[in-house]
Specification:
It is built from 12 helices and 7 strands. The chain is of the alpha/beta class and 296 residues long. Strand 4, helix 6 and strand 5 form a beta-alpha-beta unit.
């Protein structure tokens, strides 16, 4: 069994290559990491094309949900996207939070950060920034975010509890997250669990659904909800690369299920209301002169 750093290195190396692949190739494989299926176009990802703020150049076809659709983002919010890739979810979040808000994308693959920054510059978004770093040790201060989103990324991190603790740390009291991820019900065959491609493909690194939800509860989150759930079916022509024909048949007839879930949870505490500027305060400010004087 590989250690945490070895698994991280595998993901970083794979995703540097995935960044240069086309959306169709990524969408027809397991998160761009496996050989594409010749039978199925879209294995995991949901369609963003009708979503406000969608940027086609930033969509690499690597997600397994639409977390921004469920994230309850409000104007002026500060939003953090974990595993931001080429920036697609950040740009959708920016559409919701508006020019008065702020969006921070965190990714540990340099080429993804570079692609995202180029996309942001093309769009002229000066309130969207991308930071290179691990999501289990975010380059972000405490109590910064109103909302955190992530799309099919936590399953790639060996220490999921550490990531969830980091999410708790950087959320403001009363803040919340909406995260789409891959989870399991039942056990994968050993050949899938131990394969590096299937780990980078968002499958081998997934944990049991009950365990995933317990991690969130143990971290201190409240009001935990599953906002959306859908089964993930891996086509036989991909499975046959790792399993014999008989093993594929056994797996397909087993109780093991692979699911994409979108989970919502809140950090306990009270949101602080934004201070409103009162006209009386402006009038009492000696630096503001009378309109009739012509200086204001």
């Amino acid at each position: 069994m590989k250690n945490e750093q070895e698994l991280k290195d595998i993901v970083k190396e794979r995703y540097a290559k995935i960044a240069e692949q086309g959306k169709v190739e990524n969408a027809s494989s397991c998160c761009g990491a496996t050989t594409p299926s010749n039978k199925v176009y879209n294995i995991m990802m949901d369609d963003y094309s009708e979503t406000g703020g969608y940027v086609e150049d930033a969509d690499l076809g690597l997600g397994c949900g639409l977390p921004t659709q469920f994230a309850k983002i409000e104007k002026g919010n500060t939003v953090i996207d974990l595993g931001s890739g080429a920036g697609n979810d950040c740009f959708v979040a920016r559409h919701e939070t508006g020019s008065e808000g702020k969006v921070i994308g965190v990714d540990f693959t340099p080429i993804m950060i570079q692609k995202a920054r180029i996309n942001a510059e093309k769009l002229g978004y000066n309130n969207v920034e991308f930071r290179e770093g691990d999501i289990d040790a975010m380059p972000v201060s405490n109590d910064v975010a109103d909302v955190i989103v992530s799309n099919c990324v936590l399953n790639l991190v060996p220490n999921k509890q550490k990531v969830i603790a980091e999410i708790f740390r950087v959320l403001k009291p009363g803040g919340h997250f909406s995260i789409s991820d891959i989870v399991l019900v039942g056990n994968l065959p050993d050949a899938l669990k131990e394969d590096a491609e299937m780990y980078a493909g968002c499958v081998a690194g997934a944990v049991q659904k009950t365990e995933y939800l317990q991690f969130i509860k143990d971290a201190g989150f409240s009001n935990i909800q599953i906002q959306k759930e859908k089964p993930i079916v891996i086509p036989d022509d991909i499975l046959e690369k790792y399993l014999s024909s008989e093993e594929v048949k056994t797996f397909n007839n087993s109780d093991t299920g692979i699911f994409s879930i979108t989970v919502y949870a809140e950090k306990p505490g009270t949101k602080q209301a934004k201070p409103k500027v009162k006209m009386a305060d402006l009038q009492e400010d000696s630096s503001c002169c009378e309109p009739s004087s012509g200086c204001c």
